[in-house]
Amino acid sequence: MASPQQTVSSPERAAAPSAEQEVPIEIQSHETPLEADIVAGDDDGDSAIDSQSLLSTESLTSSILEYRQLHGRTYANAKTGDYWGPNDERQSEGLDLIHSALTVLLDGKLFVAPINKDDPGRVLDIGTGTGIWAMDFASDFPSADVTGTDLSPMQPTWVPPNLRFEVDDCLLDWMYPENHFDFIHVRAMYGSIPDWTDLDRKILYHLKPGGYLEHLEIGCQGMSDHKELPKDHIFYTWANTFYAAGEKMGRPFTICLDGESRKHMEEAGFANIQETRLKLPVGGWPKDPTLKQAGIYFQAALERDMEGFSMFVCTELLGWSKEEVHVLVAKMRQAIRDRASCPYIVVNIVVGQKPL
Ligand SMILES: C[S@@+](CC[C@H](N)C(=O)[O-])C[C@H]1O[C@@H](n2cnc3c(N)ncnc32)[C@H](O)[C@@H]1O
């Protein structure tokens, strides 16, 4: 899927960091309420969105393709522990829609790190999923040498010549040399990593001095600046369910919370760390056209596969029945269609540099 390349700037974006900070990225305060494009009583908007590797031959062993099955969905087989998300077509569609939402949210940009755009060098996308970010990056920067790795071979076979996909578990030792990559990108790996500082240390070791890590995470908690949500609102239930499951498996879903990812990068030894928190609307309620478009994509992603995001987490980790998951998803679907509450979640982006 091609990512939409919108360049409409958002009035919500605030000033860049001060001159002594070396990472010039734009920061939008997530404290600022987003302006809505709705009228009173409008609570059913967007319900119309009822949405619908290249592998090295050595790594394509039969065990990789022997997926786990759960309630009609398939999941990766990982040595280091079960990954909670399916790796099938429906989940892939959801992930690609989230990619579109995030790309629009970033005004058409694929990253905020101040990498050398004339010569990006060696780039690694860990947990690449469908590989859509890596595909777009490799197309935009034909001189870059891009690698995308994932537990599952769920990437396309036909890819730009400067991109390869590898089946690899980032929790195992990496085969790459020290000081190898110029830019490492990590996105939406919540609930996948037992020790983020440990992963960040590994990333630091394999980055060249001066190279960048960019880590983007998506919040689990739906929010509203326009309606007070009671503590028993389904948005709280959803987030608390994921937090509890993350605790149970020892792989937190709280990595998007304010300062979390930054803390791990600091502990690992990164320099010039910058954190950006953005509101990603759910639905087309914002007045700002960029945010409206991002929200439409994000709602479509959730509508497409909230079941996939929650089935393993609820049934295997928390002992729910399949029917209970369907009720949770139905309530979430109703809540994200409540246009009057102008729902959004927070996206957290942290960039750090390997000291020179
Ligand atoms: C929520 S998806 C995000 C995919 C992609 N980064 C994106 O933003 O579109 C998380 C991905 O991380 C992968 N993953 C989870 N644990 C992993 C691990 N230990 N090593 C490599 N990939 C992993 C999963 O297979 C899944 O494709």
Automatic annotation (TrEMBL):
Can you say what this protein is called? Answer: S-adenosyl-L-methionine-dependent methyltransferase
Region spans: Disordered: 1-24
Q: Which GO terms describe its molecular function?
A: methyltransferase activity
**Taxonomically, which superkingdom?**
Eukaryota
What family, per the record?
Belongs to the methyltransferase superfamily. LaeA methyltransferase family.
Mind listing the UniProt keywords for this protein, alphabetically? Methyltransferase, Transferase
Q: Name the InterPro entries on file.
A: SAM-dependent_MTases_sf
Pfam families for this protein: Methyltransf_23 (PF13489)
Could you provide one GO biological process annotation from this protein's UniProt record?
methylation
For bias type Low complexity, the affected ranges are: 9-20
